[in-house]
Amino acid sequence: MNKFISIVAVLITCLSTNVLANENIVDYDKFFQEYYEAKVKTQQPNASKEDLEHYLSFLTDDVGNQHFPNAPDDSREPDGKEMMRKGMTRYLGVHTGYDSKLIEYIVGYNSIAFKHSYSAKGLRSDGSEFSYSKVVLDVIELENGKVSVIRRYGK
């Protein structure tokens, strides 16, 4: 009888572990499409705080954000999401035009790399105009179904 109980206990443990492991499976393609769309919306001329919060919902609280070559530190900070919220809020709605095109993306284990182009024009706080166009490679790392590190490679 003890053997039977032990076998049942082991089977229950194995099945429970398998079910819990499957909860962490991410549909990378779906996740990426939703992430990219949310990211682009934050840059549109009519971007709202709700758009920003939707984008931030894809990130871990301690997200690391690295932009090469200017910001080479990829440290994850306990308030990483809050730092991004503060930084992105300053620029929310400053664009008078924004366009983004996904060139390609590739999925790896808990990571997605994507090459995209974007161009923006707008007004600085002093009233002067700006415009720029870039092609960059972004790599996002995922943890428990959320973005934990963002790396941008581009000038």
Helix and strand pattern: HHHEHEEEE
Radius of gyration: 20 Å
Helical fraction equals 25-40%
Under the CATH scheme, which architecture would be assigned? Roll
What structural class results from the helix and strand content?
A: alpha+beta
Folded structure, characterized:
It is a single chain. Helix content is 36%, strand content 39%. The chain is of the alpha+beta class. It has one domain (26-153): Nuclear Transport Factor 2, Chain: A, CATH 3.10.450.50. A five-stranded mixed β-sheet has the order 1-5-4-3-2. The model is unreliable at 6-23 (pLDDT under 50).
Topology:
Layout lengths: L1 H22 L4 H14 L7 H8 L2 E10 L11 H12 L3 E14 L2 E13 L5 E15 L2 E8 L2
Parallel strand pairs: 1-5
Antiparallel strand pairs: 2-3, 3-4, 4-5
Helix pairs in contact: 2-3, 3-4
